[in-house]
Amino acid sequence: MNIATAFSPCKARWIAARQSGVTLLELLVVIAVFSIISAAAYSSLQNSLKAEENFNASMKDLEAVQMSLALFQRDIMQLSPRDVRDAFGDKESAIALINGRELVFTRDGNFSSLKLDQAELLRVSYSLRDEQFIRSHWRHLDITQGDRPLSASLLSNVTNLQIRVLDQNNLWHLDWPISNNAKIRAVELTIELEGWGEIRRLFPAPV
Question: What is the CATH number of the domain that holds 73?
Answer without folding.
Answer: 3.10.610.10
